[in-house]
Amino acid sequence: MSVMRAFFSSRGVAVGVAVLVLTACSAGLRPTPAVFRTPAVDQLRTDVTYLASAPLDGRGTGTPGNDSAAVYLARRYNAIRLSSFAQADRPGCAKGGVTGKADCFILPFTASVPVRNGSPRLLKTQNVAAVIPGNGSLAGEYVIVGAHFDHLGRDSANARDPEKGHVMHPGADDNGSGTVTVLELARRFAQRPAQRSVIVVNFTGEELGLLGSEQFANHLPVPKEKVQAMVNLDMVGRLKNDKLIVYGVLTATEMKGIVDSANVAPKLMLSAVGDGEGPSDHAAFYRKDLPVLHLFTDLHDDYHTANDFADRLNFPGLVRVADYTERVVRALADRPTRLTFQRVQTAGANRPSERPGGGAYLGSVPDMGAADVKGMQLAGVRPGSPAEQGGLKAGDIVIRFGGKTITNIYDYTDALGAHKPGDVVEIVVQRAGAEVTLKVTLGKRG
Description:
alpha+beta; Aminopeptidase; Pdz3 Domain; 2 domains; eight-stranded mixed beta sheet; six-stranded antiparallel beta sheet
């Protein structure tokens, strides 16, 4: 936080941002080529370049870089003149509303991080949240729009390039892209409020297990029965071939129609998935019986690596995602009636990685848009990984792993977690309509 305060004042945010971006570039983060310029693109680029910069050191939860990121977001909300929530235990923030105090947008809490075979690790950290009051008779109801702003920091255990050691992981797409899109949506709704109020929130601790979103969902600043829906943005900065994956379309009976109607020309190629579960922040709200959506532009080779740089984002595509999300949120906020929540029976997933079970590493990249495939379809494999060395290819559908039948991503992660580094496993895939059997030696993670 002290770094941020040295750069910012309530009236000098733009100057501070420029200085920080120059500092980030001089510290080794490559500048983004100015190939597409609009005010929205420029602001998105400025915000994400700072969040992914060297001074923030990967924004690991409980680190100074994560704290600085939180202050940056609070300053941005204050500059937009949003309202903060009242915090009874913080005298300067007890009344809420527009206070001119950026600190009041920060919601501190102590996160409990599970530790295998040990006592939980306690981290002092924070979410960041603000509210944009509605302008109609429905202003007492809310739509929540959120994204996590933490990343891996220098953690190699959960990285997909563990061989690089404890290097900084910039996290521009994961989830700088979702974070800055929430900022852009906050600006738009502040200029033109909806009927219902809109809560914008940035969560910490997602990479450690949805810690921030669970904290917020368990301590909502408004009555749960007044919440219409929650919309989550996680990894939305790599739009390719116009493909946008939208999860949670069956969590309310009306949701599919809203999602489809918001897709106006030039249309996105929507891949709709019904389930509201999965390892991202929307799941914390779905488990509270709230309708949810999660937007995602799919995995890529830089996911959870030291190469997730700001200059690799598709900024015009990010604006298109923001435009689409704004239409969805306005439809949710302006509709005269409440959504009808429903639980989804089918299993689905949204952005799982190969979390260490026995520490085994394969190096596969799931195709998260292939929701109707029986098995786990691969979008690609990491160069030099055991998957590539064993002959796995993009487009393969894994149907058996070490003798276990694979019908979805959950089966696959369970099967991988049952093995240890050095195990030789038989993997059966469907490739071009035929079954192919491969032998793969699993590597070591971290």
